């Protein structure tokens, strides 16, 4: 039997939080392990309860969802949970900052329940929730922020040294917004081989999902904004 996905809900509106509990509790593959009404409580509960996925609101009292995400899943955090940011505000800056903070996905609160449940399962599997085209559009808009200011870039040097030439090619195509099938067609390799390369890239660079790989590629200047 498949192990249940342990979910922690972080939402300051009690009605919304109760709705989440009701929806998630009906799923045979999910268990709600805790609820938090602010970011600080979410961080404390997550560290104690070790959920697989944290459903995180952005605008909350005491500590906002972006900072709470950073503390739970940001750089240097050991064994971080997956964070799914769910908010009322469809603001690019929120999405960008959430992904930079370590979130694995982003949805709006008016998302249908089935899509929300699918989102939790998706990031629990270690996949990013954003579609390749959405990722490209989103990160591309903030490429200027991410680009290195000079040609001397230790993080870029580390990536180049760590990955093989083919893995660098796959990372570039990944960051350009291509799906596994599209990368396979462009590089004339099988889709399964692409999956293997993506897995190796994430493992070698200590990344949790494709979204983090895209952010990294732009941050070190491995890809450039086209528009």
From TrEMBL:
It holds the Pfam family Response_reg. The modification 4-aspartylphosphate is found at residue 57. GO terms for biological process: phosphorelay signal transduction system; regulation of DNA-templated transcription. Residues 6-124 form the Response regulatory domain. Keywords: DNA-binding, Phosphoprotein, Transcription, Transcription regulation. SMART domains: HTH_LUXR (SM00421), REC (SM00448). Residues 156-221 form the HTH luxR-type domain. SUPFAM superfamilies: C-terminal effector domain of the bipartite response regulators, CheY-like. PROSITE patterns: HTH_LUXR_1, HTH_LUXR_2, RESPONSE_REGULATORY. Coiled coil: none annotated. InterPro entries: CheY-like_superfamily (IPR011006), NreC/VraR/RcsB-like_REC (IPR058245), Sig_transdc_resp-reg_C-effctor (IPR016032), Sig_transdc_resp-reg_receiver (IPR001789), Tscrpt_reg_LuxR_C (IPR000792), WalR-like (IPR039420). One of its GO terms (molecular function) is DNA binding. PANTHER family: TRANSCRIPTIONAL REGULATORY PROTEIN NARL-RELATED (PTHR43214:SF24), TWO-COMPONENT RESPONSE REGULATOR (PTHR43214). This is Two component transcriptional regulator, LuxR family.
